[in-house]
Specification:
- The strands form 4 sheets. Strands 1, 2, 4, 5, 6, 7, 9 and 10 form an 8-stranded antiparallel sheet that branches. A 5-stranded mixed sheet has the order 12-18-17-14-15, with no helix packed on it.
- The chain is globular.
- The protein has 2 domains: 195 residues, Distorted Sandwich (Glucose Permease (Domain IIA)), CATH 2.70.70.10; 114 residues, Immunoglobulin-like (Sandwich).
- By secondary structure, it is mainly beta.
- 5% of the residues lie in helices and 38% in strands.
């Protein structure tokens, strides 16, 4: 069992692929850019630094798979299915590791970094590994043949996981292969990349995760958990705030937060981000007074701009009641 979850050394170049490379199906029942996103790619930098296949920063040193993340812990609790990237036979699995929803510390037993997981043999030296599945959700057995529609389990937060996501790793003869570029790399950002996905999976260097309203600047943990949005804010609550969370934040990005209400623009805030972060949250609002408290429907929109180009937008609505 320990051999299943042991880390595999990664080299700068992926294993040279044969004529019969697998054609991969996207393994999560979600829509990228709407209710899920890719937080981390394979690290192709052999040094102490880190770079994804595009030379971007969506990875960290030594990362050996693709992290498909959900927008919040609450979203994971709704039940998001995981299926195989290709047909094969289940060779290993583990279930029974506790999930860590709504916690700020992430502990796990030794040798259980993957948490609840499944290993599938695709033949020809190819295998795929699925980590951080939800406790009790695994539906397959060792030795079972699985197809593209076979339910393996659901996304959870078991093992070493700070947010709900599926870590899926692809290997050929024990060596990590990046599904976004299976060919050996001479340098990251190679325009002749050879992705293995059956359908194009777009690369997004950054984007919004979620957004909402609150009666104060929310705690970042509540934002990550999906518990920060208040759909109806009382006019006597003290403040009216719009917030938004992004992934892949980069230094010098421009973030704009605008609230429109019954009396026009309630607030228009711009802020230049001061550092690169895997996740970041910004909020803007005003204290409520008799002069600016107009009950009714409000619309918030966040815009992320990089080098003069709009990267992403997200919006949310809320109702402000009379004091």
């Amino acid at each position: 069992m320990r051999a299943l979850w042991a880390a595999t050394l990664i080299t700068c170049a992926a294993t040279p692929v044969a004529a019969r490379d697998p054609i991969l199906s996207f393994p999560v029942a979600c829509t990228l850019g709407q209710d899920c996103f890719i937080q981390n790619h394979v690290d192709v930098d052999p040094s102490a630094g880190a770079a994804d296949f595009s030379c971007g920063a969506l990875t960290y040193d030594g990362h050996q798979g693709t992290d498909i993340a959900l927008t919040s812990d609450m979203a994971a609790l709704a039940g998001i299915d995981v299926t195989p990237v290709a047909p094969g036979i289940v060779r290993r699995l583990r279930d029974g590791v506790e999930d860590q929803f709504f916690t700020t510390t992430f502990d796990h037993p030794d040798e259980q970094e993957c948490g609840n997981g499944v290993l599938i043999d695709h033949g020809g030296g190819w295998e795929s590994q699925y980590c951080h599945l939800r406790k009790g959700s695994i539906t397959v057995d060792i030795g079972q043949r699985v197809g593209l529609q076979t339910l393996l389990g659901q996304i959870g937060m078991s093992g070493h996981s700070e947010f709900p996501h599926l870590h899926v790793a692809l290997r050929k003869d024990g060596q990590v292969v990046d599904p976004f570029n299976a060919d050996p790399l001479t340098y990251c950002g190679d325009t002749d990349a050879n992705p293995l996905w059956a359908d194009k999976v777009p690369y997004r260097a950054s984007g919004f995760v979620n957004a909402g309203f609150s009666d104060r600047i929310p705690d970042f943990d509540a934002v990550k958990w999906g518990k920060a949005h208040i759909a109806t804010v009382g006019g006597d609550g003290g403040a009216f705030v719009f917030w938004a969370q992004i992934f892949g934040a980069q230094a010098d990005d421009l973030m704009q937060l605008v609230i429109h209400g019954p009396n026009g623009v309630f607030i228009d805030h711009e802020e230049v981000l001061d550092k690169t972060q895997a996740r970041a949250m910004r909020a803007a609002g005003r204290r409520l007074t008799g002069e600016n408290t107009f009950p009714g429907a409000y619309h918030g929109e966040a815009t992320l701009t990089r080098d003069g180009v709009v990267i992403d937008r997200i919006s949310a609505t809320a109702t402000l009641t009379a004091p």
